[in-house]
Amino acid sequence: MSVLSVDGVTFRYGSTAVLSDVTFDVRAGELVGILGPNGCGKTTLMRVMAGYLRPEAGVVSYDGRAVNALRPRDLARLRAVVEQRLTSPFEFSVYDYVLMGRTPYLGRFQAETLEDHRIAEEALELARAVHLHDRSIGELSGGELQRVMIARALAQEPEFLLLDEPTAHLDIKHQLEIMHLLKNLSRDICVVTVIHDVNHAISFCDRTVLLRDGTVAGCGDPTSVLSTPAIREVFGVDSYRLQHPHLPQAQLAFSIPLPRHRERKSRILVIGGGGCAQAVLFALVHAGYIVRAGVLHEGDRDLDVARALGCDTLTAPPFSRIGSADAERLQEWCRQSDAIAVAAMPVGEGNLANLEVACSMIGDRPIVLFSRQSDFRELDHTGGRAEQLFAALEERSSVAATVDELLRRLVDLIGSGSAQR
Question: What contacts 24+ positions apart, CB below 8 Å, involve 400-406?
Fold first, then answer.
């Protein structure tokens, strides 16, 4: 099985350290993404892997053969490189440009053979660029050019394909098309790509290498490597997972951490579910409140967000009915809180106890109902009981239609200082 090995690679530009002891490998059948913030060494690592730069320490090898020990022609037959931009002083036709990928197989002054032409045509087919055959390179759009550059690399018949940000400057459709193409190619060859989009890495890559300041901050399965703590540490942003209805992998949403108001230490209990409390959780945590959430079923999007934000949570098994013990615990948490925020959510028999507990706190604790609608029948899957409870909350508590309004309501109810108990 083909293996690309990066072992202890260290590289400097003068006195500036760019890479330090970088180690990982790639096997045939894998699409591996290299991620990290700007300036962390991704492009330098790619150029070292390509053999364009010689490392100060460590070695890059293809099937056990060190890059620095290979002749340029032999290296070009092993690996192909697609860089960020095409630089050519000549206006080649697409076909002539792709045919140049056969150069490593030609002798000096040797003309291309019928076999070379067949391979170039096949490369255009693999890259889904046959329709561009006779176009001039200078006439192509960004997405078209990226396909043609990949086709030229495939004409080299490499065992390893290296790409530096192949989706940069492309619109969403072309980004997805290129990632699907790379995924298909990785069935037969090793594909390594520098990539910026974390969700593309999660959706398409078999493994990811996460760089931070020239070192490997994580390597492995994308979902594990691109965890909420790792993303916060490496990229300096908060993230939470959203389950896409048509994708097996959860996608990430991001938020720049806002400065927290140190004086706010009030405790807020959030009751929600079905993803309806996500905005509430974010707003309250970023405003500096101490936030708890529950009772949330395992697998619920609100639970994913609450955990990602570091909130204490009360949980129940998926699709189960909230039992009396959980309801009592929720009621205890309500009494320990300075206020309760209820996000209007779909209510069935499984989570009806949440709404019943919230209503039992009317007159005991300040409550803000977060709702963008006044007709609660669409949320009621209990034969009318949930609608009655929502109506009671609407009548006897504060109501907010936006998160900004919710924050203002809380300030009015409990102030912005320390805990009110």
Answer: 400/368, 400/369, 400/370, 400/371, 401/370, 401/371, 401/372, 403/279, 403/280, 403/282, 403/283, 403/370, 404/283, 406/280, 406/283, 406/341, 406/368, 406/370
